[in-house]
UniProtKB/TrEMBL annotation:
Organism of origin: Enterocloster bolteae 90A9
Domain of life (superkingdom): Bacteria
Residues covered by the Flavin reductase like domain: 1-76
Protein name in the entry: Flavin reductase like domain-containing protein
GO molecular function: FMN binding; oxidoreductase activity, acting on the CH-NH group of donors, NAD or NADP as acceptor
Pfam families in the cross-refs: Flavin_Reduct (PF01613)
Classification via InterPro entries: Flavin_Rdtase-like_dom, Split_barrel_FMN-bd
Amino acid sequence: MYQSLKETRVCVLNFPSIDIYDRCIKTIGNNQFETDEITASGLTAEKASKVNAPQIKECFLNIECEFLWEHDLFEGSQEVAVALKAVSICIDSERYDQSKLGRYGKNGYLYQIDQPANPETGEITPINHGTLEPGVPIEWITN
C-alpha cells in the first residue's frame, strides 16, 4: 500500500469487522506489487467514489483519502508518519445505527493491536485484534 500511496497520492482506509478479519490479514501475504491483494484474499475490490483507489466491498466503513505529507518518526527511522485528508466517507447504515449491527462491540470497529510489549520485561505479545465495547458513562469534569 505504501508504494501505491506514494505513486498515486490517494488511498482508501477500509475498516473490517471480525467476520472478515482472516481475509483482511491474508492481504498482507498477498502484497506483491503485481498481485491484486484484495481479490487474492477472497475480498471484493470496488471503485471508490472520489479517489482512484480500490475500496473493499465487505468492509463496513471506507474512508477515501488524499496524501498530504510524510515525516520520519525520528532521525534515522525506517518508519514514517503519514498524513492523509479524508475526502469521502461511506458507512453501511446497519453499522451506523448502534441499535442494529452498530459501530461498537463485537460487530463494530476492529483494531489491530501491534505487538504490545510488557514495559518491565520487554516480553512481546503476538499481534492481535480488539474491539471497543460500550461501557458505563464517565462524568466529564473539566474544572
